[in-house]
Design brief:
The complex is a heterodimer of chains A (149) and B (192). By secondary structure, chain A is mainly α. Chain A is 48% helix and 0% strand. Chain A has 2 domains: 31 residues; 103 residues, Cytochrome Bc1 Complex, Chain D, domain 2. Chain B is mainly α and 192 residues long. Chain B is built from 8 helices and no strands.
């Protein structure tokens, strides 16, 4: 290092130490994210323990773009869906795949539907998926309550 | 109100003329449509999802029309409603063009009376009621567009869905602010 730069040598040392510290912080942060995971899990086993009030909030924010409890809109009305045979409302124009299905909506079928509708009933029209297992459980609990079950 | 309707019609005409080539290409991804990439994807499934999105846009256009004609909105709010409606018309036109390009049949809008019944328009008594309805629909639409992203076979369409969700989120944010709602306390409140 030239004599001209010597007075600034401490700055170089501090910068290097700062970089090492920053790298350490980022490594810890990355490790924490990988452990805690900011994204929801997708474990179908978590369908029990749904919270109806949380389900109502989730339903309002995630489902009401297309659905309502008491009116057919882009999708069929939902009050009474729990326990109903899929595609069985007489006043809604379902896909043929849904009308031909004999699935009954319950905890398991609704959970599978919300994970991936196309996997459950190929050829149906809904592309929406709800990836968060707890959110699915909450919505299913809400729909069950609103269906009087 | 006739002026508003004429204005809306002119916007729609101008919009569809501009959109027919440029935006449809942008929406569907010209390279994907022209090449063999689409063959490998589930085009019928993608068309079905796009048609659900189109039905959602039809409903949003009707909702803003009903709101604008309700007599419940101030002139300033009406102008915003008309602006947001024009965005939904652009979405509609682009979705219709993409569905047709993919060989599908675009879904038709329902009659206005059906939308009025489905959205319980009779319950709207104030500007706040109209804004609450609009905010609910926009939030639902944003989450719907995010929620269908994993289902698209064509990844270009998935990206389009994200862009549509961004538009709806922008609408929701403006409406929430107009309603005096506080900003969300947590991140990642959309989708999931």
């Amino acid at each position: 290092m030239s004599s001209l730069l010597r007075p600034f040598r401490w700055i170089t040392s501090v910068s290097l130490a700062g970089l090492v510290l920053l790298a350490a912080v980022l490594a810890v942060a990355s490790w924490r994210v990988s452990i805690a995971g900011p994204l929801p899990s997708d474990d179908p086993a978590q369908i029990t323990g749904g919270d109806t009030e949380e389900g109502a909030r989730t339903y309002q924010s995630r489902c009401t773009g297309c659905h309502s409890l008491d009116a057919n809109r882009i999708g069929p009305r939902h009050r009474g869906v729990y326990g109903r045979v899929a595609g069985s409302l007489p006043d809604f124009d379902y896909s043929s795949a849904l009308t031909q299905s004999d699935i009954v909506w319950n905890d398991e079928t609704l959970n599978a539907w919300l994970i991936n509708p196309e996997d459950l009933i190929p050829g149906q029209a809904m592309g929406f998926r709800l990836n968060d297992a707890q959110a699915r459980a909450d919505v299913i609990a809400y729909l069950r309550r609103e269906s009087g079950k | 109100m006739r002026f508003l309707q004429n204005s809306l019609s002119r916007r729609a005409m101008v919009g569809s003329g501009v959109l027919s080539a440029a935006t449809i290409g942008l929406l569907a991804g010209e390279h994907a449509l022209a090449g063999s990439k689409m063959v490998a994807t589930d085009t019928a499934g993608d068309v079905a999802i796009l048609n659900v999105a189109l039905a959602l846009e039809h409903e949003a256009i009707a909702a803003y029309q009903i709101g604008a004609e309700s007599g419940l909105l101030t002139a300033d709010v009406t102008a915003v409603a008309v602006s947001f409606q024009s965005h939904h018309k652009e979405h509609r036109d682009a979705l219709m063009g993409t569905i047709e390009t993919l060989g599908g049949q675009p879904a038709d809008p329902k009659r206005r009376r059906a939308y009025e019944r489905a959205l319980n328009v009779a319950s709207l008594k104030s500007q706040t009621d109209v804004l609450e309805l609009a905010a609910r629909l926009e939030l639902g639409a944003a989450n719907a567009y995010l929620g269908v992203i994993p289902s698209f076979g064509n990844r270009d369409l998935a990206q389009v869905s994200a862009r549509l969700a961004a538009d709806e989120t922008m609408h929701w944010t403006a409406l929430a602010q107009a309603l005096g709602k506080s900003l969300p306390g947590k991140a990642l409140m959309f989708g999931g």
